[in-house]
Design a protein that fits this description.
This protein is mainly alpha-helical and about 120 residues long. The chain has two domains: about 70 residues, no CATH class; about 40 residues. The chain contains five helices and three strands; from the N terminus they run αββααβαα.
Amino acid sequence: MGIHCLPRELRDEIYCHYLREHDGYAYMPRTHRLRCMNGLPINFSLMYTCKLFATEMQALPLKVNTVTFQTFLAGGEHPTSSDEWTSWSRAGRYDFLLDRLDFIREEAFAAAASVFGRDPLH
């Protein structure tokens, strides 16, 4: 008697138990893929055994696991000092540079105000 002979509800419980990862999944920005939180690939072997299992398990991995999205950089590392900068999209780099430019402008205005006072006309 194989698993395919069991009632659907029981098969669903087996699928959920098989797919559930203790810490869930993590999105890896460099590869644009989901992995187990420990960095190992997600095990879909049972899904690949037959069409029935593939169909029944299709949406379960994301239903039974949390997905954590992490940023490219850890610990305040500056993106231009790492190879992460090259993996950002052009829009991502542009957005980052605009944010930096706004920050530098604010710092410049604050420095000018402390030197020249609050009224720029005097």
